[in-house]
Design goal:
By secondary structure, this protein is an alpha+beta fold. Helix content is about 40%, strand content about 20%. The longest helix is centred in the middle third of the chain and has 13 residues.
Length: about 60
């Protein structure tokens, strides 16, 4: 996500996972984003619709 930059929402996450050969569900993709945010890898920048951005590498 850091390499691609920009903002991430559920739709972009779904496309990225499909492009990588996965068959994600929307609910699962949102959970992945919440988990990454709780680990400090993503920052929520907007609530509705939910959007994240990747934290820069240290």
């Amino acid at each position: 996500m850091r390499a691609y930059g920009g903002f991430w929402d559920t739709e972009r996450g779904l496309r990225a996972l499909r492009d990588a050969g996965h068959e994600p569900q929307e609910k699962h993709t949102r959970r992945i984003f919440r988990d990454l945010a709780s680990e400090g890898l993503l920052v929520k920048v907007q609530d509705r619709p939910v959007r994240y951005r990747a934290e820069p590498a240290d």
